[in-house]
Structures are given as structure tokens and as C-alpha cells.
Design brief:
It is built from three helices and five strands; from the N terminus they run αααβββββ. It is an alpha+beta fold. Strands 1, 2, 3, 4 and 5 form a five-stranded antiparallel beta sheet that branches. A hairpin with a 2-residue loop joins strand 2 and strand 3.
Length: 127
């Protein structure tokens, strides 16, 4: 697992271009808001880890439901989309006690998801 030393999601959300994302997050129930913050964290960290990846979406439950325990989310069956392809992903995300910011994160990028599996896993095709 890759353990980033810098948490980037707060910086990303503070960017003026993220105004709509901030507004959307405020409308979500607590658990969904935490999941979305972790998804954002995953995209930021993958992008920083390898510049050839340009994550644009994360599905934390592609091959297995994510597990939420308090302020910890474990997504062993996640996937992310980058450059018109889906890749398997595993991450563990620790949020602050108020559930409003990520304080710990680790991830592991896996193999590309076979195109014929996209529908089965609920991964939208790129148009």
C-alpha cells in the first residue's frame, strides 16, 4: 500500500474551481459525504503518484461494497477511471472525528478492469 505523506483533498476543495463540489458535498448525508471525500482523496493521490494517470472518477464499490466503520472507510473493491479506462483500486481512508476532512490515507492501484466487465461492475463506459 502507498501511504502519502501529504493530504491533498482540502487544498483541492479550497480551489475556486471546486465551488460546485463543495456545494454538492454539503447536501450529502454523513456517510455519503465521507465516501465522496475519500474518493476525491484517491483521485488526488493517484494523480500525484503517477502523472500518466488522470483519474476522473472513483467507484468505491465496483467489485465489493466499501466498509464504513466510524470515520474509517475500507474500499477493497474500488475502481477508478483514467484516460477512458478503468483500473482496480484498493484504499483505506481515515477521516477526522467530525467526518469533514481526511487525516490518513493509503491506496494500491491494480490492473486495468477488462472492458467486458465494466457493465457487470457498474462502471460506465466512456463516451
Amino acid at each position: 500500500m502507498i501511504r502519502p505523506t501529504e493530504m491533498l483533498s482540502a487544498k483541492t476543495l479550497a480551489d475556486p474551481r471546486s465551488r460546485q463540489a463543495r456545494a454538492d458535498l454539503a447536501t450529502f448525508a454523513s456517510d455519503e459525504r465521507m465516501v465522496q471525500l475519500c474518493n476525491l482523496k484517491a483521485m488526488d493521490q493517484i494523480r500525484r503518484w503517477r502523472a500518466d494517470f488522470q483519474p476522473e472518477r472513483v467507484v468505491p464499490y465496483a467489485t465489493a461494497e466499501e466498509k464504513i466503520s466510524g470515520t474509517t472507510i475500507a474500499a477493497d473493491g474500488a475502481a477508478f477511471r483514467s484516460r477512458k479506462n478503468w483500473y482496480s483500486l484498493k484504499f483505506n481512508c481515515q477521516l477526522a472525528r467530525d467526518g469533514e476532512s481526511v487525516i490518513g490515507f493509503e491506496f494500491l492501484v491494480g490492473d486495468p478492469v477488462a472492458r467486458e466487465k465494466w457493465d457487470e461492475f457498474g462502471l460506465p463506459a466512456v463516451h
